[in-house]
Amino acid sequence: MTENDDAILTQLPTRLKDARRAQGLSLDAVAKLSGVSRSMVSQIERGESSPTIATLWNLTRALQVDFAGLLDGAAEPARIEILRSDDVPTIDNLGASCRIRILSPPEEAGRHEVYELLIGAGGRLESQPHTRGAREHLSVIEGSVTLRSGDAQQALGPGDTARYAADVAHAIHAGDAPVRAFLVVQDA
Q1: In 49-160, where do the E strands start and end?
Q2: pLDDT of residue 2
Q3: Inter-residue contact 28 to 69 (CB < 8 Å)
Q4: Reported pTM
């Protein structure tokens, strides 16, 4: 083995642990996602065991990291992913007088979704309950809305943010003027 090979092997445990933490995953979660036992994942992260190529492949797939990049000694070049305004996917057939622009990447669906809401005067977006524990964060940029989550109801104006349960029926109703707002949906 060369000196570079030794450097890769000593950096691998830290890189795997950093990738797991960046995803916010526990050892148990990585074990379930990868099919590698929890104890083996822990041993690899502590540098007490060297993974086989197959084990390393399963771990990188579970952590959604690039296999070659994990082993590469060079730092990953800085990237900025751009989604131009004309390329933002939109949904126009939900609610009344409501356009939803999908700002989050598709791989975040169900975990962390970000939307821009454009609701015409008097328009609305009504939603059925999402999965148990789902939450939404609504920030009004322009206009005013009445927000309902279950039996609770609140009025919001420009600059206001509401955080509320989305595992119950919930709705956003625009006032007498058009509304522009940002909506973050978590764990839907």
Answers
A1: 90-91, 96-102, 112-127, 135-142, 145-149, 152-156
A2: 47
A3: no
A4: 0.60
